[in-house]
Amino acid sequence: MAYVTIKDVAKRAGISVSTVSCALNGKDRISNETKRLVEQAVQELHYIPDSRARAMRSLSTKTVGLLVPDIRNGYFADLAYAVQDELSQAGYCTYIGTSSENVRQQDAFIMDMLSQHIDGAIIVPQGQMSDALRRLLKRQLPVVFVDRSIEGVDAETVPLVVSDPIPGMRDALRDMKDLGHRKVGYISGPVLGSPTLQERELAFRQCATQLFGEENIFVESSGFGQSSCELVIQRMLSVGVTALVFGYSPDTVQAISVMDGVDGILNQGMSFVSFDDIELFRLIKPQVSVISQQVQKLGGLGAQIFLDMLRGEKPESQRVDTVYMQRGTVQLIG
């Protein structure tokens, strides 16, 4: 049979469905012999209790919705793992979906989550309020935003766990200056609609201006394909930039792929640093210098805050310091 039901267990044990239910739920009035019969039937039939039925009785599904932009992105895969690991230890199942950086797909998943009667959600939002998000928030379920914020959302209602880009950015730029670099560039990522990427760009402008002077910093936004990615780097080189910061790790991956690998960028005299300490950056040679958002800490904090909300607490938003990790792609200027 495809699914074993409680009726099948009752039939095998030779007792009523209500008696099986009482035995499975630990009711004291069930005799030890009856409990033994039920346990034996459960083992023989490999019965798994229906969590939906339990949810209807307890008003809790022990299920949390987790929405990330792209599970193929190593950063968001690490984030999802950290959240899931923390929730699993607390006895919760994580229902994971991706928005593919698309508001419509985000909303479709949120509506699907609501149909599953989740206990709440942890979301990396798309940077703007949407119909589905409004519906979710009106349910007054515990909701936590991680990695990205949405303008106009009260942080007391929806706690936010994000990284602070300034500490890692400042340390990376100081290292570049100490190694002799005098002109620095920044590729910001698709900043439109992303308060997080906008904040990173602002952090670069502030830190770089203090260290290098406004006339020696150069900023470009992305949203480009592979062919123009190379052109952006070439434009940076043409104005004398020798050190580059990528604010969005997919852009870094793209640049490496079209510039004949890491060595292809370094051989042109360009040192570089990327946000996000994804696994790829640690596997390739030389390893990519990064500004780490401490994704494990971000995910763990997001899950902990969510669990606090389930207990009726009102936790505050949290910011995690970014950390600069110098590796092989930041070198002494020749």
TrEMBL record:
It comes from the Bacteria. GO terms for molecular function: DNA-binding transcription factor activity; transcription cis-regulatory region binding. It holds the Pfam family Peripla_BP_1. Keywords: DNA-binding, Transcription, Transcription regulation. SUPFAM superfamilies: lambda repressor-like DNA-binding domains, Periplasmic binding protein-like I. Residues 4-58 form the HTH lacI-type domain. The keyword Transcription applies. CDD domains: HTH_LacI. The keyword DNA-binding applies. This is Transcriptional regulator, LacI family. It comes from Bifidobacterium tsurumiense.
